[in-house]
Design goal:
2 copies of one chain form a homodimer. Chain A is mainly alpha-helical and 216 residues long. Chain A has 9 helices and 3 strands; from the N terminus they run H-E-H-H-E-E-H-H-H-H-H-H. In chain A, strands 1-3-2 form a 3-stranded antiparallel β-sheet. In chain A, helix 1 packs across helix 3 and helix 4 packs parallel to helix 8. The longest helix of chain A is centred in the middle third of the chain and has 25 residues. The N and C termini of chain A lie far apart (66 Å). The N terminus of chain A is likely disordered. Chains A and B meet through helix 3, helix 4 and helix 7 of A and helix 3, helix 4 and helix 7 of B. Chain B binds a DNA duplex (30 and 30 nucleotides) through helix 3.
DNA sequence: AGATCAAATATCCTATAGGATTGTCGGACC
DNA sequence: GGTCCGACAATCCTATAGGATATTTGATCT
């Protein structure tokens, strides 16, 4: 008989088709398989995913509440348009409010096990892999701050950063890796003030790199 | 014939039943007609509101994405439980990050017309009326900061503050009115630093008043 | 060519019925 | 008395059909 113990894996509770569909559509939006400002019809998803309308509608409603799609009455759903300059400004103003504080708190209270999972992304083989590692990097720090509201808000925002970056096929910059390493060093040293400053610098530089892509 | 011109009212675009149902359920949660941690079944809403399942499911999905209800597979929806001490701490930590900054920016850029609508709530006849005026007060300032992300995040948080306060029938304190008036004065004077400090003080005092209700 | 109007299409919204799954309650058994 | 088991109820999920409304398209007219 197998040696694995059933106790070490918590019971799997199927969370419903709506959740699955939600994740699927979200992944499609993030991978640009559904580009910004493109139609998303319920019927086509029914045919493509082979599930009924109900879970698709629920998934689209959740995506709408999270700002990834928008609905127009009797006209169907559409993915949100790409961020313009004003929205980019607002997003980074918000990140500057939250993430430096999160970095400070993470330096003070983050678990050592989570800290070991921090990766700067210098070993990323592709653009997509780097984007995923960047998302995970910021997610771990936000989670390390020990405030669910901070982690959730940042997750929402990072989705849009991810889409924006993917639209412009932005290069994997050495700069970003260096800035990540600076943050990691400050966190490992449990130096809250330095982590906060490093994170602020990272976001400001990141904003400068992304801002160049739009002039309007 | 009527003297009103049809041009001055923008075309009414019915936004769908799901939106209406969403607002209705949200209002019921805010008014404690649906207390925290109570079941909310789709069928009973069908009977009560007289609409089909589809818009109700969509409304509940949106409410779930906004954290007001939670779903368990094959077990129905339920309103989120009341905040505990840890969540209250997290919420006010978050507000302290956002709202003082919003007050500073509002002092610098808020429209005079919006500023005229600021009310401290000293004339509120009831507890519910004060709660609504308080929500509107903070909403106007967040909107005055000119950042939609700030306004939306604060709106989400204020819902939970509202519910928490309603649960304990907290008194209308003179203190809160005074603090509101201090903020209004700083905003009218276009003094960003003073508005920021007044807002920070208001939130800290507000936290102290609410914290006393829970010991666990 | 450009604008105007009507038909066609696509989509949302409703309504109803039935199968599948979970939680609960009461009784049988040790 | 405590524990196990089966029926019941509640709920979610699916499926299908049809009506209502906005968008699009194409033809007609100036």
């Amino acid at each position: 008989m197998p040696a694995v113990n059933d106790m070490d894996r918590p019971i799997v509770r199927p969370s419903g088709l709506a959740e699955e569909v939600y994740r699927r559509i979200r992944a499609d939006i993030l991978s640009l398989r559904l580009p910004p400002d493109s139609r998303v019809s319920v019927d086509s998803l029914v045919r493509e995913l082979g599930v009924s309308q109900t879970p698709i509608r629920e998934a689209l409603s959740m995506l709408e509440a999270n700002g990834l799609v928008s609905k127009r009455h009797f006209a169907g759903y559409a993915t949100s348009p790409r961020m313009d300059r004003a929205q980019l400004d607002e997003l980074f103003e918000f990140r500057l409010l939250i993430e430096p504080h999160a970095a400070r708190k993470a330096a003070e209270g983050m678990a050592d096990s989570d800290m070991g999972r921090l990766a700067s992304g210098e070993s990323a083989p592709s653009h997509d892999a780097f984007a995923d590692m960047d998302t995970e990097f910021h997610r771990l720090i936000a989670q390390g701050a020990g405030n669910h509201l901070i982690a959730d808000s940042l997750a929402r925002l990072h989705i849009h950063v991810h889409i924006f970056r993917s639209c412009f096929r932005s290069e994997i910059t050495e700069e970003a890796v260096h800035e990540h390493n600076a943050i990691i060093a400050a966190l490992r040293a449990r130096d809250g003030a330095r982590a906060e400053a490093a994170m602020r610098r990272h976001i400001e530089r990141s904003y400068g790199r992304l801002r160049d892509f739009i002039k309007d």
